[in-house]
Target: PLATZ transcription factor family protein
Amino acid sequence: MVGGFNGEGVVREKEEEEENNKWPSWLQPLLKTRFFVQCKVHADSHKSECNMYCLDCVNGALCSACLSSHKEHRIIQIRRSSYHDVIRVSEIQKFLDITGVQTYIINSAKIVFLNERPQPRPGKGVTNTCQVCERSLLDSFNFCSLGCKIVGTSKKFRNKKMLGEADGEESVNGIRNNASARKKIHSFTPSTPPPTVVNYRTAKRRKGIPHRAPMGGGLIIEY
Ligand SMILES: [Zn+2]
Ligand SMILES: [Zn+2]
Ligand SMILES: [Zn+2]
Model:
């Protein structure tokens, strides 16, 4: 497991709408599918363990015998690492943007995990964690798995996160200094009522301004 490849992290804040629409329809079903179970159709066959998935049919786990009815379809193979489902980067990245998802080297192939997996105890001296499940990660990654990336880039999750931050700011009542004032403006959302008289003027001033107003900061600091 060596870091360094895929050194992204800067690109993560794109237009939100684009992000919400960009997941292919097969992805959620894929993440919910149970693999490495006996094939119901080919129970009598020797090698009937289901470790394939058809991106075109999206009809659950397939065994190698099933594949004969999926010729010309986009098939991916699921592998296992310590009882967790993984997929080779070389296979999935043709169909999916896995930027920000931590990759591992297993059996000399680069892989990503499909779903988050519980971490029994937090690592020591961890500086970077999955934005969703807080599993410890190498520095250049944002998510531990494809599943966490879907959650973490969803509008709902981000709004929740933003609100949480805004609440934290609001509880520090009044404006203390330049830095906190800036932050306050930045995390201000229209749904948050102006909490005190102190903020009345600034709140009023903010009203007509779109929340990304470039004139934030400096103007608002007045006692
Ligand atoms: Zn089968
Ligand atoms: Zn198919
Ligand atoms: Zn995670």
Residues 54, 56-57, 70, 73 surround zinc ion (ligand 2) (CB under 6 Å). The CA atoms of residues 124 and 136 lie 9 Å apart. The first helix runs from residue 16 to 21.
